[in-house]
Design goal:
Two copies of one chain form a homodimer. Chain A has 544 residues and is α/β, with parallel strands linked by helices. The first copy, chain A, has a single domain, classed as Amidase signature (AS) enzymes (Alpha-Beta Complex). An eleven-stranded mixed sheet of chain A has the order 1-3-2-8-10-9-14-15-13-11-12, sandwiched between helices. In chain A, α5 packs antiparallel against α6. Chain A starts with a helix and ends in a 9-residue tail after the last strand. The C terminus of chain A is likely disordered. At the A-B interface, α15 of A face α15 of B. Chains A, B: Keywords: Hydrolase.
């Protein structure tokens, strides 16, 4: 070994040791009684959902954890269930989920049980719930700051720091604005979930927890970047959680795990005081939103948060209280359908799921038209440029803190070293192109009013979240189906449709790929998992 | 003369000739009958408002042009006044105003009269107005594109082009989104008003029309950058017009000319399709808003525009219909009062105006508290950085098209040559600082709820627009009173209060200036003009 190699090797063992210590310290917070005697290999036990995980839970724990957020709140608010038993059941199931999929970054079950006990005491004394989310466990992506625990965002260099800085005075005490609001609503916070370091990948992988596996098929990705949320809620170790989305990071894990996921437009929910990558990049903003097992849960959480008037505490949130759109509920609706964006053809089960949705819409008395918008490639190229405006400066600074290796899924976008940054003029030019693209898309949307017969343009459009039901590790090579929504900044909701069926969803062996990207996506075609579709809101900027 | 000097001299005469040709061509559009036989010098005739300008108008023209926008619309909508006579009266008065103050960049009286005649024909046939602004003349800052006329934004190099580009196909036919909306509401467009080249000054000066003088005192500035609007509406050559504001450009000319001016928050009114400087710079956005002779006129225009659902055509406009805030009208209100920002002491008449406002508030049964927010200097330094993110690249490109000389008021910010641009990382860091400053200010505002006794925080705060009643040419050296609102992005309205009174508003000869900037502002103290105050909205982001 020459000197350089020795130094590198020493540094490597340092960050590996730091990562291992952190991993061990988190895992040590799982009570002995909740530890699995052994973890089956992915090949031996692909699917760990349902019956498989139930074997480790009591009947009462299963009943509680199979209930959605609305059902939980109705029971805790009436006193039928104690906040503490709910917190304990979800903590137990989350602990199991983590052992099976690597979905947690931080565990604070003890604080949650104390908080739940305090709520039970409050309820016993006042005979009323503490707030609209009384006793509801809520999981959080590891960008939220919560007192008593760290935020690493998957970076080894952030261990023991506040967002990579030491001695800021914020360590272990600072809380993000939404955390304050959730507590004030009565939510019980008990764990933070895993992310890919940088947040900029559709898979979840980092040097602290490794790879977050899909609980329905542990050979596949749980999605990313809110992949820990996806796996955890997919395994019902949480009824509802919050992720963030700058390119699909709420929708992808929601889709891959058969969940409902809401990506609101920017400025709707409070991001204030959260850790982030490229903080201050404001050409395309990351937004925060919920993932859950039912649509009603999404509504409960968003409506509750807006009741806190977040615009008084987060300067980027608009003063927009919850708006009911029930005036549309009696109308005939028209949906635009985009089955294929022309770049990468979705896999057969995704196409089949779209067809199922079209049938369902028609059966319900609504109508569909083909969605033929301006080229999505023009929009997705812009958003790809925006992700690297700083040439990777920010994320490489975070990597350099520890010298850790960079996951291939992240290096695909940011390389091994930073490159030249974009200038103010170049950024302004991109912002103008974005605005012009948004305007063109809006004009297309307006133009559909002549085709619907309702006097309104299309009420919403529907398209896949990804070209596949779930990604195979390192084979997520095309994000156009999700990133297009980030450049447009439309509110969007992911809705699960069906499961893949090996007997129906046959791959077309004679398919001629359109291009290199399409070819790789086609080759990754495997009969897999849940299917989900991206469902856009009923009116532009008006889904809430 | 050496070769270089000869070349420079030839280039100079070329741009001077182009500017003169443009100026002459605009002036030639003033009908012979409306030309003043001679223009009095500023020293001979400082004040050209009221009685002075009336001498050139008929009694009917005076009656029409002294009526505010609401009064005009009520008469045109009932058929009491013809759209054509209204258009003609304002065209005449605008022509006079231009000759006295240099307030116009484009004249299209003929198109306006044709449009007004068509509206009269429509009214005669259908017995109803064409829209809520039937027959209302509306003036536009020279950033709006209107078919049939150019947009130079004061740049000699933009003459004969579309935003500096030749052969774009947009020349003389493209219209900005708000122009389309105003036409569809029934407004009559008849002139575009002067701006400082670049738009980045509180005075209005360029090589095409020269300097826009204050009609109340033609030795003083009409303000900027919507200075043409200020002078024109101040002289009642327009009942209402639209300006833009990135640092005070609606509020300053409104204040210097005794007008009401509304600077909404970003995303409220459509900027789509307008010319701009540094287009795509999105750290602090320029916003568009009305200036008028009454508060009711501002409301009429904004409410009418929002009825057009601009969010369906401008991707930066939020889906926010007009909101009535009449629920506050019966309450006791609390106003924060900031008389002096601690950097530059306002001149005596400005202080007196604030005191008058405080008295009026108390007499009306409301209350005031001292407004002691986080340091304004911290905020105004950020916005000063944001104006030059591109190092002047954009504005110098526009200057280079013709080689024209740069006005001193503009060179003060952008120098004679561009400098290095800021990088993506630096811009992101500034955006984070801005957000943190906004949050700190919001927290201060929230904190006042303990001091009001109403259960609400302060409903609005009041401060000067500028340290003086109107600026003396080249002596506008401190913008902190207006730019602070742009970094905060609060909706704000300028309200005229009183006139300077030489007998009362004595300068303090013993004043010890606090700093160099304060000293220059103090030295410029002269008993001058209108006084106006910046009146912030009744609730944050909720003035409309």
């Amino acid at each position: 070994m020459d000197t350089m190699t020795k130094k590198q090797s020493a540094a490597q063992s340092l960050w590996q040791q730091a990562a291992r210590t952190k991993r061990d310290s988190v895992n040590s917070l799982i009570p002995e009684a909740w530890r699995l005697p052994s973890i089956p290999s992915s090949n031996d036990q692909k699917d760990v959902t349902g019956i498989y995980i139930w074997q480790f839970l009591s009947a009462k724990e299963i009943e509680i954890t199979e209930t959605d957020a609305c059902g939980i709140v109705s029971r805790t608010s009436s006193g039928a269930w104690k906040a503490r038993e709910v917190a304990e059941a979800f903590s137990h199931r989350a602990a199991l989920a983590h052992q099976l999929t690597n979905c947690l970054h931080e565990i604070f079950f003890d604080a949650a049980l104390d908080e739940a006990q305090a709520q039970d005491d409050y309820f016993a004394m006042h005979k009323r719930p503490i707030g609209p989310l009384h006793g509801l466990p809520v999981s959080l992506k590891d960008q939220f700051h919560v007192k008593g625990v760290e935020t690493t965002m998957g970076y080894v260099g952030w261990i023991g720091t506040f967002e990579g800085r030491r001695g800021s005075g914020n360590e272990l005490i600072y809380e993000s604005e939404m955390v304050r609001e959730l507590r004030s609503l009565g939510a019980i916070l008990y764990c933070k979930t895993s992310v890919p370091h940088t947040l900029m990948a559709g898979e979840t992988v980092n040097n602290i927890i490794g790879y977050t596996w899909n609980p329905k098929n542990r050979l596949l990705s749980a999605g990313g970047s809110s992949g820990g949320e996806g796996a955890l809620i997919g395994l019902k170790g949480s009824p509802v959680g919050f992720g963030t989305d700058i390119g699909g990071s709420i929708r992808i894990p929601a889709a891959f795990n058969g969940l409902y996921g809401l990506r609101p437009s920017a400025g709707r929910l409070p991001y204030e005081g959260m850790a982030n990558s490229m903080d201050g990049q404001n050409s395309v903003l990351s937004v925060v939103g919920p993932l859950a097992t039912s649509v009603a849960s999404l509504k409960l959480l968003v409506k509750s948060l807006l009741s806190q008037e977040p615009w008084l505490h987060d300067p980027l949130v608009l003063e927009l209280p919850w708006r009911d759109t029930s005036d549309l509920s009696q109308s005939q609706l028209t949906f635009g359908i985009l089955k294929d964006d022309g770049v990468v053809r979705p896999h057969p089960p995704v196409i089949r799921a779209i067809d199922m949705v079209v049938d369902a819409i028609k059966r319900a008395g609504h109508q569909v038209i083909e969605w033929s918008p301006p080229s999505h490639t023009e929009g997705t190229r812009l958003v790809d440029e925006i992700y690297v405006l700083d040439g990777g400066h920010d994320v490489h600074s975070a990597f350099r803190l520890s010298g850790e290796i960079i996951a291939d899924q992240v290096a695909a976008m940011y390389g091994k070293e930073p490159v030249a940054e974009k200038s103010a003029s170049s950024i302004a030019a991109i912002n103008v192109k974005k605005r012009n693209y948004q305007r063109k898309y809006l004009e297309y949307w307006n133009s559909t009013s002549g085709m619907t017969g309702t006097g309104r343009p299309v009420d919403a459009f529907i398209m896949p979240v990804a070209p596949f039901a779930a990604a195979r590790p390192k084979l997520y090579n095309y994000y156009g189906y999700s990133t297009i929504i980030n450049i447009l900044d439309y509110a969007t909701c992911t809705v699960p449709v069906t499961l893949v069926d090996k007997d129906i969803d046959k791959s077309d062996a004679n398919y001629e790929p359109r291009n290199k990207v399409d070819e790789i996506a086609w080759r990754s075609c495997e009969i897999t998992n849940h299917l989900s579709l991206d469902w856009l809101p009923l009116t532009i900027n008006n889904c809430l």
